[in-house]
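During the first year of the project, the team set up a workflow for recording each protein of interest as an amino acid sequence followed immediately by a discrete structure-token representation. This format lets reviewers and collaborators read both layers of information side by side without switching files. As required by the reporting guidelines, we include two representative entries from the current panel. The first entry is reproduced here exactly as it appears in our internal archive.
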Amino acid sequence: MSRSPLRPAALVAGLAALALGLTACGSGQIDAPTSADTPQVKIVTSTDAWGAVARAVGGNYARVESVISSPDVDPHGYEPTPQNAATVGEAQLLVMNGGGYDAFMTDLVAASGNAAPLVDAVEVSGIEGAQEAAADDHGHDHDAGATPEPAGEAEHEHEHGSFNEHVWYDPAAVGRVAEQLADQLGRIDPSAAEYFRTNAQTLEGGVAQLTSKATEIGRAHPGARVAVTEPVPAYLLQAAGIANATPQEFSSAVEEGTDPPAAVVAQMLGLFTAQPPVDALILNSQTTSPTTDQVRDAAQKGGVPVVQMSETLPAGTTDWVQWMNANLDELSAALNR
């Protein structure tokens, strides 16, 4: 449904070449000799999205465990367990998204009393407004001796404001987090510092290829517009230069777990009946409601392609670069229809 059917052959060929390169390399990491006695830095991340990034940088000299590692779990409503607190308490390096997204991790760290280095992805992302979002997040008071409050009782209480906290969908931000991880790991295990730096640089190479691929997709579809149920993929769309036509009040309400006003829902549904309609709908596959089902049905009825993107790694996926590459492939395929 793209409005640019006559795409330059060079752009199409470029996209194919980028897809091949990304599939071949993934996040990558250099080989390192290991044995049962090889020391490994224990890294604990809030979600497996950041676990994949940490694993790419830490490689053979790190052991990564993620509090959330299932695509069936919505991080917004996650209820931490005593085992989670014990796991966090044993970490030598902690990684969280920040920006209010994974508040359960802040509570777990406080409850565990662990003073290990903490990498806050929002804080190091370099995105405009990120420092303020990080400051707000860390400004919350936490009693280090308290039991983490079940997320089901505090679900969606934080204010997202205008900052989009889904920074793992921003290739440039992931590159900066990889650099920070390499620095922290190098301090913990100086003997493997060069190994960590090399792995981070390899990941940054994958980031650069993803950014180029996103740019090519945008160039192949000038004027393309999409709708999203939540702002999860917004940074990836920005990297591609593809407009998000979603009413902000709609996606914010869905993200907060509330019902958008009827007038806003009507505005959203109108995106699929307008002439021309939006080129694709991107659904958050981990959050569904009667409202998002209604939007999906309207898109399908209007012949608008539906793409699903998740907040955590899809089943069977362990590599961040390959995950984002697959998301771009799905987006490209939808825009080509």
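The second entry, processed by the same pipeline in the following quarter, appears below.
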Amino acid sequence: MTNSADLLNSLKIDRSAPPPPTSRKGLWIGLAAAGAVVVLGAAGWFLFGRDQAVPVQTASAVSLSAGSGSASVLDASGYVVARRMATVSSKITGRVREVLIEEGQRVEAGQVMATLDPVDADAQRALSASQLAAAQSQILGSQAQLKEAEANAARLGALVGQKLVSRAQFEQAVAQRDALRAQVATAQRNAQVARNSLAIASNGVDNTIVRAPFAGVVIAKAAQPGEIVSPLSAGGGFTRTGIGTIVDMDSLEVEVDVGEAYIGRVQPKMPVEATLNSYPDWKIPAEVIAIIPTADRGKATVKVRVALKARDARIVPDMGVTVSFLEKATEANAEPKRGVRVPASAIVRRDGGDAIFVVGGEDIVELRKVQAGGALGEHREVISGLAPGETVVVAPPAGLVDGTPVATGTD
């Protein structure tokens, strides 16, 4: 019993005894482990986290000192369109015999584009020619009878005065003469009708030849030999409604949809600078032709027609175009503007001033302080701090900071 009691007492905790001394070696081990975690985390970010570039949209800074004395007040996009474009068809329904055009071919006004089978038209013209010949023969017969009737009436007229024939015989001869005169007049009118019918039949033969209505370039070939063409849609997929489509390349212009909130900035005869999406480095001088006086309620836009002052084979219908509406300097001797223009959303406020994120080497952004100027439509002037041609971030994310790698995309 005594031994058991002694054993239980040895297991009790003496709370009045002082705590054992702390080992400094364990403290240093803990601090070293925490430092290793921090170092490993920094190294992991350096190796992996920094390679995760932030996707951004970029744009190039455009110089304002080009010497033109003009600045863009509005930028918009549109398409190249042709004022003269036609899908050429035949005037009659018929089978195509020959197609004489190909895509890209230039045709002149009146040039033959295709021919139809003329069998029916030729037969109709031959019939009209026969009817005209018959009418002319009838005229000759009636004129011969009229000549005899006139001579008979004249002879009886002399005899009735001498009381050698009765007046009834004379009056019968006169009536026969007058009837033959009417018959000749009818035959002549019938001949004229046959002549007109022949002219119509000849036009029918000419209608089997499809000609170009104006000079232009063929952009589509719609029919092949053996197919049926008709000026009216007959339904189904076996009847063509056209031979081909031609475009007058001298009538090309640009149609732009401008937001109705900005249409007040556009005026007729306003200078414009057009840039084809296919040739971004080619600036084409242009001019506003007219503002169409109606709005699209669905898109809240107004259509503007722009005339291109340059003619080039590279400009084709339906090409995408970006246009900049320019505002001329008010004074003839005005000095050219200094600085550059960038999208207004590229300028941000940092530390109480204007700043821009500039994309440098290896796609690392640099936060740069700039001196911003006035608004230029959807752009803004930068007086100093930025050089022409430098790439800036458009609408930078809120978390973007100096030295961040980015994945660029052109705006």
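For the second entry, the following points were noted during internal review. DSSP finds four helices and 25 strands in the chain. The domain at 54-67+336-410 is CATH 2.40.420.20 (conserved putative lor/sdh protein from methanococcus maripaludis s2 fold). Both points are flagged for discussion at the upcoming steering committee meeting.
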